[in-house]
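User: Hey, quick favor. My workstation is busy. Could you predict this chain's structure for me?
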Amino acid sequence: MQRAIVTGASGMLGIHIVKKLLESGWNVISIVRPGSLRKRPWAVDILRKTEIMEVDISHPVPLPRSDVLIHAAGVMHGKTLEINYRGTINVIRSARTRWFVLISSILALGDSLRESAQEDQPCRPVTGYEISKCKAEIAVSKAFGDNATIIRPVWMYGPYTMNPDIIYLAKLVKLGISPVAISENLRIAMVHAWDVACAVSSLIGESGIFNVRGPRMYTFGELIQVIESFYNKKGMKVVVPRKAVSIGSLFFDIARYLLLSPYDIPIDRLRGKYGPKIDLREGIYETLEWLESAQKVKVKRK
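Assistant: No problem, here it is.
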């Protein structure tokens, strides 16, 4: 049986990757931050089917040999350079694997996204997060060469999410407020974590960079409409000007994706191996059902 190591295994994407690998017959070692399972009890039922190692990737730690190492650990805010870049360097130094898969982000392209999202487009990162992802990609390519796969997902959602943006939007709609971006051209590329996990599984052994998004691009308005439909609410429309979106991009991940997403995110390279299947309505409903069951979208009413 082939062995896979998954870092960030207790996160939303990590859990989905572990589930997919187990389904495909892999022997999985789950790498989690010390103490993370106490904060994420929902991960335990899945990860207990694997060998669990508590590892702080901010320090080099010897890892077991593996056929593939999938590095899905990372953060969007805070110590992005320390965890996303230097943590990747530590994992590279510790890895004893035949193949390395890095979970990067479409935002590694930075301002280049305003022009094109082709995989071979030069990166022009701006924010700390974008810089950390771009530098991690360079480090993996340098260390593993053709024995590496770099995955660039767009904005991810799904069960087990702790993304504050989707939680915040759900709370607003529950309170009867529906934010609407002023420009109809503000599109967002989204992808369900299960589609990313399936893409990762399909791309093991495939060299290069691969964009991963959902079946199509969406507008911000479509996202809000699906959330309204789930809660059976039609809230008061609050227009969000483009300038406010620009300011919001400093604090909210979704605003950065809205600002940078071009008309389309090409996934021609991915389609040869896997075609995204989960549409927005199905995926958001599943996500909100999980958030409600985990009591993550409670609102206080006066």
